[in-house]
Amino acid sequence: MLPHWSTFKLLGLKSSLVKCMPVSLYSTTEKGKGTLFKYQNNLPSLPVPSLDQTLTLYKRAIIPFYPLGREDTFYQNYCKVIDNFKEVEGPELQKRLSHFAEGKRNWLSTIWDNYAYLGYREPVSPFVSYFFSHKNLNTEIGKDQLMKSAALSHRVINFMSKIEHETLEPELIKGSPFCMESFKWMFNNCRVPGLPSDTTIKFSPQKNRFMIVISNGYFYKVYHHDLNTGERFSLGQLYASISAVHNNSHQKPRCSNPIGILTASNRDVWATNYKHLCDNPLNKISLEQIQSASFVLCLDDNFPTTIAEKSVDCWYGNGYNRWFDKPVQLFVAKNASSSFLGEHSRMDGTPTLRMNDWIIKQISKMSVTEFHDEKKTAPQYTELVFEVDPFIQSQIQKEKKAFKQVTESLSINVWQFHGFGKEEIKAYGMSPDAFVQMLIQLAYYKYTGTVRPTYESASTRMYFKGRTETCRSVSEESLQFVRDWENTSKSGAEKIASLRSAINSHVRYVKVASKGLGVDRHLLGLTKMLRDGEKIPDIFKNPMYTYSQHWFLSTSQLSSNEFNGYGWSPVVPEGFGLAYMINPHWLHVNITAFKNNPLGLNPDYMAFYLTESIQELKEILSKSVIRAKI
């Protein structure tokens, strides 16, 4: 998951620090706290890769994109440029980067947050945010909009409390701790539009014990702790408050000036409108209430039925019943279909995956008897008021049209294949993630007859404030695999051998990237060390440098049996957004693209070739005699 790289200037962007409101975040030193952040102080710092290692890996990664591979004259000439950079400009930029990294536990964090997210000016929805669609629950709670809304909110508040008191278990992957820093930014946080880049604001959870409920386009401040006693509200009390808000909002016609649509704007436009809104003291107060709220719950009036409809609903929805700048936003439709949308600037998908997976598992075990409210506390909520002047009215109408135009330019296909998943792949001694990456490569090759730059997110959370590094999925081995697979003269054994070689190559790259030693973040860091007026080195001006970072396929895996959807947008006009889940016995790929894709590519056709590819892989693998012992 990453923003539209085609809209960035690859060079010349000045990095600026992420601006955050000074506020005491959850501390790891307070007495009585749990173990959530127990490993933070001992996490290693993100390393600065060696120049030689990065350039060697880079030269290898771009080979598949030259028609003649290693023998291509253009490749050989570019290698000379790369080698010259290693001897001439590279050492000085590397020295500057190493100096920049001194005293920092993560030299990349502020650069990346601004370059990839806060400095990005296109609308966060649908272009940056990611979504999870929850599976349907065949229970009384799971079929009632308001009961499910209360249940979701109650369990989210429980999860929030675990973070606040640090009782949430820290994550260990194969015995190694992962950075839990991003959990601090999950609640009571908000992205704020600004020029030339946005900021993030973090508020005290103890001083802001409320959530925002958006219903029929109106905004309500709904308390989840009692204003008088400070006690957390019960499930029944939350249900009463949410029901009261729903009733109140629907006693009026749908809001004619839905402020939320402004958050779907181009960020420069939203920054201008935001400043205008804040010039009115009443509006400024309402905006601060939204920003400081724990999270947002949206009560929708639609009935999404198919998985594609559910996915679209949480990907961008109707636009007006939303606040796209919050990192945790939940939606519940009239038919109780529920989902989640995450603003991406301060956290990636793994923390919110954990939260959503946990709350759906919790809700599936709940009983309606838990909604009984013995205290009969009066609902505690207030409606937020916005004074909308003619200028903002015109901007709302303008953004409604712009949002409709943008979202109608996108298409989606939700591909699922049951009866073959993680366990079946492991039975053949293969990495499930690498297998699906090769499945995607094969389907794309069948569709287009070529391979193109492919991005996969590799987690670097083994380091302090680690987020992601790029895994370049296309390799010499993956290219050979797709060619061999489509070669009718190759035997099944030869095809499987080629598949294994491609998978092993991919696994090696993921391991390198997860250690923070990939190509892309290091090269980005080197470009950021260039000073104003300095000549841009030829390595960065070569067409292959730009092309190999033009992600025709943007992919990432987050898996949960509690979801029936997960995805985001394509990141370049010609590309696919391919979000995939690998569950024990089924696979899921959410395929998004622009309808006016310059290459004429269509998600429906990509889904067709995914099916053809998995059926062929499954058939030939089933005939192989060697299966791994599990």
From TrEMBL:
<keyword id="KW-0808">Transferase</keyword>
<feature type="domain" description="Choline/carnitine acyltransferase">
    <location>
        <begin position="46"/>
        <end position="597"/>
    </location>
</feature>
<keyword id="KW-0012">Acyltransferase</keyword>
<comment type="function">
    <text>Carnitine acetylase is specific for short chain fatty acids. Carnitine acetylase seems to affect the flux through the pyruvate dehydrogenase complex. It may be involved as well in the transport of acetyl-CoA into mitochondria.</text>
</comment>
<dbReference type="Pfam" id="PF00755">
    <property type="entry name" value="Carn_acyltransf"/>
</dbReference>
<dbReference type="InterPro" id="IPR000542">
    <property type="entry name" value="Carn_acyl_trans"/>
</dbReference>
<dbReference type="InterPro" id="IPR039551">
    <property type="entry name" value="Cho/carn_acyl_trans"/>
</dbReference>
<dbReference type="InterPro" id="IPR042231">
    <property type="entry name" value="Cho/carn_acyl_trans_2"/>
</dbReference>
<dbReference type="GO" id="GO:0005777">
    <property type="term" value="C:peroxisome"/>
</dbReference>
<keyword id="KW-0443">Lipid metabolism</keyword>
<comment type="similarity">
    <text>Belongs to the carnitine/choline acetyltransferase family.</text>
</comment>
<keyword id="KW-0496">Mitochondrion</keyword>
<dbReference type="InterPro" id="IPR023213">
    <property type="entry name" value="CAT-like_dom_sf"/>
</dbReference>
<keyword id="KW-0472">Membrane</keyword>
<keyword id="KW-0276">Fatty acid metabolism</keyword>
<keyword id="KW-0732">Signal</keyword>
<dbReference type="GO" id="GO:0004092">
    <property type="term" value="F:carnitine O-acetyltransferase activity"/>
</dbReference>
<dbReference type="GO" id="GO:0009437">
    <property type="term" value="P:carnitine metabolic process"/>
</dbReference>
<dbReference type="GO" id="GO:0005743">
    <property type="term" value="C:mitochondrial inner membrane"/>
</dbReference>
<keyword id="KW-0809">Transit peptide</keyword>
<feature type="signal peptide">
    <location>
        <begin position="1"/>
        <end position="20"/>
    </location>
</feature>
<keyword id="KW-0813">Transport</keyword>
<keyword id="KW-0999">Mitochondrion inner membrane</keyword>
<feature type="active site" description="Proton acceptor">
    <location>
        <position position="344"/>
    </location>
</feature>
<protein>
    <recommendedName>
        <fullName>Carnitine O-acetyltransferase, mitochondrial</fullName>
        <ecNumber>2.3.1.7</ecNumber>
    </recommendedName>
</protein>
<dbReference type="GO" id="GO:0006631">
    <property type="term" value="P:fatty acid metabolic process"/>
</dbReference>
<keyword id="KW-0576">Peroxisome</keyword>
